[in-house]
């Protein structure tokens, strides 16, 4: 019988990115015993990769900003499918969360008079992103880690959760294994917070790293949690396209926020050609007005390069398809042109965008202070995820909470840049608080030993099939090709139906995965756990995308190219049926209170 190393907590947090760490700090502050489990080393999460900044209406650079403008920007960006309660809490609480980070030692860039500096980003009406050059996430993780460790959380690094445990309908903890020795672990807990980030690795071209295989969503779904908004996968407009080995790596929106412009092979700023009605009033008419906006002129409107990501990504796609792309299948993003306006622009660019400078110098041998970059869309962020209560972050499974990218609701059909770092602070804090409260009012759960043993037996089965079984890497590659080609930036029903057929075939192959070697640091074995999760979330994305027969936000349907007001009333929910089948349904969005409607009307 496989052995388990056993631990017991009030609150177990799965994931040590910003959301997990912020939840851990909050839960520990109530006196709860907190355990944190993460798949890789502490500090190695998506949050650390975040570049551009964290959105909060601090109004340090433009005093017209406040929570009402941030709320209405977030709702407009999400095309009104957002959970309005989350959007309200987020806009109201983000400034306090950023100041809290500062009090814990985060060193943000400063205005001349010593306040936190804020930069422009797509879809935000005013400069709103607090930042540290283009390494904001690094500073956030450093601060949260330092603070968290002193709050007394216990960390289990390089441990992957394989399954959640249940006791009489409520969550009872989780079990998993460690990469170093391949031992099994049991983390018994009265409450569990899922903070496992996104699903980007289900696609071929992505800015996401190897950990983002949708584990948390799959874990929650299997114990009865509902998933929401799965059709909305964000394709960031600017990823590297060349060299091929680094294709998909992010080029921060901060480049455009600092004045970078997009051009096609004819040298034309094509973003001026197509400005959505929703944004016409807020967008510059001329290149000159757009430039003034990026330099802080309060009377100017933003350039079209700073429209929402879904729109910019589609415009780039159109240029490439029309044969007006760059040599390697993207378009040109040029920050070097600002030399026309800023003397000493080379040093200015290096100071404002140090990571971008080094990224292109080292990976593409290109000096962005002198030449344009080549960029194209890359799978970046998951708006969908575990459906949660807006205030507490609890899912429909008692004791199971979710925060950060793994949770759905705040961003609706499209996330604004910078709103993820603020999301994970605001809702990480709330999830930690409410999970600790839940733990206090519930006794320790009972562990189902039989289930535990069956999970371990299933986890070891690929060793028995050995080299004659299916290769897990090949299944992963085939899935990534399928999702990229058939459920990507432009979608049609017939292609997505083909994708579902392929996913079914891949599911069958995944049942027969075989691996060789032993249990220590065995990547093949690890991939055998990732693959079923990626298949599950891919199936959910595809079903939801087929059901939504309209184009809105991140979902563009070539067969239904228009937005349909009727569809604007619903979220799509994916859940497991009683026979284990995947169920997909429309669910009406709760009516928005009159005072929030008034805020939106006022900002139009
Ligand atoms: P993550 O930070 O992704 O952490 C997930 C954690 O879960 C990790 O510790 C991982 O090891 C763990 N985990 C996963 N599966 C398991 C498992 N099965 N068992 C145990 N542990 C598990 N957003 C902004 O707002 N502003 C930006 O400027 C910005 N820039 C970005 C730049 C890049 C290159 C990328 C990729 C994203 C960027 N984002 C940005 C998005 C933002 O960084 C992420 O959405 C956010 O950090 C997600 O945080 P999180 O805490 O939810 O998850």
TrEMBL record:
The keyword Zinc does not apply. This is Fumarate reductase/succinate dehydrogenase flavoprotein subunit. Keywords: FAD, Flavoprotein, Oxidoreductase. The active site is at residue 309. InterPro entries: FAD-dep_OxRdtase_2_FAD-bd (IPR003953), FAD/NAD-bd_sf (IPR036188), Fum_R/Succ_DH_flav-like_C_sf (IPR037099), Fum_Rdtase/Succ_DH_flav-like_C (IPR015939), SdhA/FrdA/AprA (IPR030664), Succ_DH/fumarate_Rdtase_cat_sf (IPR027477). The keyword S-adenosyl-L-methionine does not apply. PANTHER family: SUCCINATE DEHYDROGENASE 2 FLAVOPROTEIN SUBUNIT, SUCCINATE DEHYDROGENASE [UBIQUINONE] FLAVOPROTEIN SUBUNIT, MITOCHONDRIAL. Pfam families: FAD_binding_2, Succ_DH_flav_C. Residues 10-421 form the FAD-dependent oxidoreductase 2 FAD-binding domain. One of its GO terms (molecular function) is oxidoreductase activity. Signal peptide: none annotated. Residues 478-590 form the Fumarate reductase/succinate dehydrogenase flavoprotein-like C-terminal domain. Its cofactor is FAD.
């Amino acid at each position: 019988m496989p052995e388990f190393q056993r631990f017991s907590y009030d609150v177990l947090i799965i994931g040590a990115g910003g959301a997990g760490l912020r939840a851990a700090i909050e839960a520990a502050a109530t006196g709860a015993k907190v355990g944190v489990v993460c798949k890789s080393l502490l500090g190695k999460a998506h949050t650390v990769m975040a570049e551009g900044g964290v959105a909060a209406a601090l109004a340090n650079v433009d005093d017209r900003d406040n929570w009402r403008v941030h709320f209405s920007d977030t709702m407009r960006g999400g095309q009104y499918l957002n959970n309005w309660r989350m959007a309200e809490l987020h806009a109201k609480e983000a400034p306090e969360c950023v100041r809290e980070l500062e009090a814990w030692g985060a060193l943000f860039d400063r205005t001349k008079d010593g306040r936190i500096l804020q930069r422009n980003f797509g879809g935000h009406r005013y400069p709103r992103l607090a930042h540290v050059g283009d390494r904001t996430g690094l500073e956030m993780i450093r601060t949260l880690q330092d603070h968290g460790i002193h709050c007394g959380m216990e960390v289990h690094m390089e441990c992957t959760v394989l399954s959640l445990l249940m006791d009489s309908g409520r969550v009872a903890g989780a079990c998993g294994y460690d990469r170093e020795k391949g031992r099994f672990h049991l983390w018994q807990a009265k409450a569990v917070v899922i903070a496992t980030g996104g699903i980007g690795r289900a696609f071929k071209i992505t800015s996401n790293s190897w950990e983002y295989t949708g584990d948390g969503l799959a874990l929650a779904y299997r114990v009865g949690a509902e998933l929401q908004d799965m059709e909305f996968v964000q394709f960031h407009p600017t990823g590297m396209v060349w060299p091929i080995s680094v294709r998909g790596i992010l080029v921060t929106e901060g480049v455009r926020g600092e004045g970078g412009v997009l051009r096609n092979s004819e040298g034309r700023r094509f973003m001026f050609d197509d400005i959505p009605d929703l944004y016409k009033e807020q967008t510059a008419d001329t290149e000159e007005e757009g430039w003034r906006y990026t330099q802080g002129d309060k009377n100017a409107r933003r350039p079209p390069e700073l429209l929402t990501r879904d729109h910019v990504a589609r415009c780039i796609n159109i240029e490439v398809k029309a044969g007006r792309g760059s040599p390697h299948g993207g378009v040109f993003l040029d920050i070097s042109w600002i030399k026309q306006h800023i003397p000493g622009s080379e040093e200015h660019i290096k100071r404002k965008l140090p990571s971008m400078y080094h990224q292109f110098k080292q990976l593409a041998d290109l000096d962005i202070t002198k030449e344009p970059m080549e960029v194209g869309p890359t799978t970046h962020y998951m708006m969908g995820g575990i459906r949660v209560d807006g205030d507490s972050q609890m899912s429909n499974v008692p004791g199971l909470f979710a925060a950060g990218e793994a949770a759905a609701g705040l961003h609706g059909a499209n996330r604004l840049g910078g709103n993820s770092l603020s999301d994970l602070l605001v809702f990480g804090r709330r999830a930690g608080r409410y999970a600790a409260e839940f733990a206090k009012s519930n006794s320790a759960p009972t562990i189902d030993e039989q289930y535990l043993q069956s999970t371990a037996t299933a986890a070891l089965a690929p060793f028995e099939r050995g080299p004659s079984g299916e290769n897990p890497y090949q299944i992963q590659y085939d899935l990534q090709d399928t999702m990229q080609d058939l459920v990507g930036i432009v979608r049609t029903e017939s292609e997505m139906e083909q994708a579902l057929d392929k996913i079914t075939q891949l599911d069958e192959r995944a049942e027969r995965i075989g691996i060789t070697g032993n249990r220590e640091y065995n990547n093949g074995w690890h991939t055998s756990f990732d693959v079923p999760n990626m298949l599950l979330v891919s199936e959910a994305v595809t079903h939801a995308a087929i059901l939504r027969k309209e184009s809105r936000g991140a979902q563009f349907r070539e067969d239904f190219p228009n937005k349909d007001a009727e569809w604007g009333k619903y979220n799509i929910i994916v859940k497991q049926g009683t026979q284990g089948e995947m169920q997909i349904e429309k669910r009406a969005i709760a009516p928005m209170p009159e005072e929030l409607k008034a805020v939106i009307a006022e900002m139009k």
